[in-house]
């Protein structure tokens, strides 16, 4: 059974290997993926269109991923787009900070591909509901 539409995911991840692996995994799931390496590139991309979901790496070269999550959640145009933060930090305080900043989900890297799939599916289902 096919999804109603192909979801567009904006992936903002500084680490080239993690970005390529994550983009590949998301494309295997049938999503269209726009992958960029910095917060500024992500903001420029978002000025042109809105994705169905955004996946943001924690340590971007030009800004903290958590600050970008906060910025997007407080922007009327992007506040309705679900956001997942990728981070190597598994501490509860870091997870809480991400949710307080406006993240809809949090995934510790390196991640289990099935967990990425499950969390993203849940994010996209929330949007469609």
Automatic annotation (TrEMBL):
SMART domains given in the database record: REC
Native organism: Botrimarina mediterranea
Keyword Phosphoprotein: yes
Keywords assigned: Phosphoprotein
SUPFAM superfamilies according to UniProt: CheY-like (SSF52172)
Gene Ontology BP term (one): phosphorelay signal transduction system
UniProt lineage: Bacteria, Pseudomonadati, Planctomycetota, Planctomycetia, Pirellulales
Protein's recorded name: Transcriptional regulatory protein CseB
Domain Response regulatory: 8-124
């Amino acid at each position: 059974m096919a999804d109603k539409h192909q979801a567009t995911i904006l992936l903002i991840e500084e680490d080239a290997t993690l970005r390529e692996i994550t983009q590949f995994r998301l494309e295997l799931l049938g999503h269209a993926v726009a992958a960029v390496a910095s917060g500024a590139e992500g903001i420029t991309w978002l000025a042109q269109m809105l994705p169905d979901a955004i996946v943001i790496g924690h340590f971007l070269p030009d800004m903290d991923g958590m600050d970008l999550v906060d910025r997007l959640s407080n922007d009327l145009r992007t506040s309705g787009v679900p956001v997942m933060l990728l981070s190597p930090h598994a501490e509860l305080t870091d997870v809480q900070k991400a949710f307080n900043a406006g993240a809809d989900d949090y995934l510790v890297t390196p991640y289990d591909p099935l967990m990425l799939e499950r969390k993203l599916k849940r994010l996209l289902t929330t949007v469609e509901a």
